[in-house]
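Request: How about a record?
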Amino acid sequence: MIDEDYLRPMEISEKTGLHQNTVSKELRLLKKEGLVYCLNPEYYKPRLYRLTNKGKKVNKRRVK
């Protein structure tokens, strides 16, 4: 069973209203910064992402 915190780029796109290509590009950048984690980087589709602890801290500050 996969943790519900993991999302596919398509799901992120639907939740944010951003184009899927934009989401994929941003996820690559966030991954480089250590803000998101990809559960299955060896697969092309569907990759599953979640926030890292560092990403959760940044997100909390952003939401306040």
About this structure: The radius of gyration is 11 Å. The chain has three helices and two strands. Residues 20-32 form the longest helix (13 residues). The mean pLDDT is 89.
